[in-house]
Amino acid sequence: MLKNAIWITGAEGRLGSALVELLKKDMDNKVVGTDMDVDITDMEAVEQSIKVYRPNIVINCASISDADYCEENMVAAYKVNALGARNLAAASRSANAKIIHLSTDDVFSGRSTGHLTEFDIPDPQTVYGKSKLAGENYVKELNPKHLILRSSWVYGAANESAKEDYFSYVINHGKTNTPFEVPLDRIGSPTSADVLAGFIRCLLDKTEYGVYHASCEGMCSRHEFATAILALMGYDTELAKGYFSVENRGRISILLENLMMKMTEIYTMPQWFDELKSYIEKNRLSETDKSEQAAVNRKMGG
Prior knowledge:
Elements: E1 4-9, H1 14-23, E2 29-34, H2 43-53, E3 57-60, H3 67-72, H4 74-94, E4 98-104, E5 115-116, H5 127-142, E6 146-151, E7 154-155, H6 166-176, E8 180-183, E9 187-188, E10 191-192, H7 193-203, E11 210-213, E12 220-221, H8 222-233, E13 240-243, E14 255-256, H9 259-264, H10 272-301
Parallel strand pairs: 1-2, 1-3, 3-4, 4-6, 5-14, 6-11, 7-10, 8-13
Antiparallel strand pairs: 9-12
């Protein structure tokens, strides 16, 4: 018996592709993933998709997340991050569907010290952060059955067409033995797309609503994150050249406290290093399986 009809937007991105792969494993789920084929900034297109897919859960992973691009293209950033969220929230409400909207730690300035909870007041300083907060506000206003999830430093692309993330950036430098510069003063909590997808799967059948922070536990600098990736992959850690950033849009660090998660006791996020190690080990096995299957295919073809 069908349990959930799920529409995932931004399905070609890091989290979207991980979600599609994970949620399709449950035969009780009907999962539809769209990306550029459905323009979420077009209300008519969104309403038509709602009628066709008839979801009871909409997961919005669609976003323009390149901070530099957003600064230079404010209209485009707000169009996708705010207007797109508005359209999905309104359409999902008309279908009596729950909406799970993915947001970011960039809704905070990064200038405060200590961990930030779901009850701290956002104060974005960038176009990206401001547009994502505008999207959050639309979702809150237009669909009472909402979950807004803020995460940080999300890495891992399950789909080859997804844009290169920081994890892949470091790996590629390790493979080519190419030195690269990494800030020592950017602090955060690296979170894999896989573990974030696992939390979202947990939420599907829960009667939880509101804002949730969802990042791995612990913290590190960008430099520590890079050297950990290089070390676990067996590359030269000296390739990561640490420096103190002079201009970083005023950001110091953004550390999300998963307070709602801990209060409701519905999920426990792993430590960032443990998850990174697990992610690398899992993907190494996956690559081994692909290589072995390719070898079998070549042999049978020959």
